[in-house]
Amino acid sequence: MEQTILLQISEQYGCPTYVYDGNKIEAQFAKLSNAFSGVKQLKINYAVKALSNISILKLLKKKGSGLDTVSIQEVLLGLEAGFEPSEIMYTPNGVSMEEIEEAARLGVHINIDNLSILEQFGAKHPNTPVCIRINPHVMAGGNSNISVGHIDSKFGISIHQTPHILRIIENTKMHVNGIHMHTGSDILDIEVFLYASEILFETAKQFKNLDFIDFGSGFKVPYKAGDLETDIDELGEKLTVRFNAFCEEYGKDLTLVFEPGKFLVSEAGYFLTKVNVVKQTTSTVFAQIDSGFNHLIRPMLYNSYHHIINLSNSSGKERFYSVVGYICETDTFANNRKIAEIKEGDILCFKNAGAYCFSMASNYNSRYKPAEVLVYNNETHLIRKRETFKDILHNQKIVEV
């Protein structure tokens, strides 16, 4: 996205503000679809947790996406955005049976990752098709907090518990039409992904009435110039051959399902902030901005890298800065980072701010959540208003004591 457009948005809507490039989201969706064009039946379910603004969901619906949801609230957002229940996969972890029952009433596809819940649900709803989330015991992902397929993970039913799954299916006569895995995020080595896929294929052979296999996602995107990323084309070429061979062996054309979140929206997102103070200490030059980990927690939570550009002086001489926020704990976005010379009032832009940024924002320190803006086909749309003090008080009940 051109820097002049981002500067115009900062002037029109103020800072901090999230900006999303709708055309980039569409391009990423097409890139993944094209990589697996050799598969007869492909379904891409966008992972709502990455960025849940309803306008983004509507944009992806227009491209033919389904949804991967992890809460009943995300299910309701999907329905509100116009998705049919059949287009929504619900993959909770550790939720109550009441929430799962609500999802069943809404008619969405349920993905179960717990033997106890599987047995309870199968006994009560034997005719309702369900998917089963398998834990392949594969360590994959760019950070321990986002690696979810290893043996100590709380997610999925262990492949070693497959006999228990089959016994529950036999006893309840329940209908299992899908099998699923998700090993983690920021997977760079496609051989790890293919290895986990082989485990899933072997497990799938034991289920006789499958309609689809869901391989999750976790594709790594680049965070800076020259950064490595998952080779989607190579993965598409290799996994397509293997998937088609498995379908022939299985005796049925299954649907290959992915559930990308970060892959679709990360690079499309920009976070605009204003520099409040440039503070020189005995050892460091701090650029202190009008935001904090209440708006962008990923660097503190995952040690994630976000490239930072000084939009107000993009061609200026580079100096070293530590970019920090205004929260009452340490909230450092970048340590000793080379950025074009920064002055108070400059607009800094954080790249790769589309995934798990606004969706993890909070009102910590009673700060307002930022505005969200969508740029699509060269038109700018406000898709979420900046919060006000009334929003902070909303739902609070004042008790005179």
From TrEMBL:
The protein's required cofactors: pyridoxal 5'-phosphate
Pathway: Amino-acid biosynthesis; L-lysine biosynthesis via DAP pathway; L-lysine from DL-2,6-diaminopimelate: step 1/1
GO molecular function: diaminopimelate decarboxylase activity
Entry binding sites for pyridoxal 5'-phosphate: 218, 356
Chemical reaction(s) catalysed: meso-2,6-diaminopimelate + H(+) = L-lysine + CO2
Glycoprotein listed as a keyword: no
Keyword Ligase: no
Binding-site list for substrate: 298, 302, 329, 356
Origin superkingdom: Bacteria
Top EC class of this enzyme: lyase
Domain Orn/DAP/Arg decarboxylase 2 N-terminal: from-to ranges: 24-266
Record-annotated Orn/DAP/Arg decarboxylase 2 C-terminal domain positions: 18-354
Enzyme Commission numbers on file: 4.1.1.20
Record key words, sorted: Amino-acid biosynthesis, Decarboxylase, Lyase, Lysine biosynthesis, Pyridoxal phosphate
Record PTM N6-(pyridoxal phosphate)lysine, positions in chain: 49
Role this protein plays: Specifically catalyzes the decarboxylation of meso-diaminopimelate (meso-DAP) to L-lysine.
Subunit relationships: Homodimer.
Sequence similarity: Belongs to the Orn/Lys/Arg decarboxylase class-II family. LysA subfamily.
Protein name: Diaminopimelate decarboxylase
Species this protein is from: Paenimyroides ceti
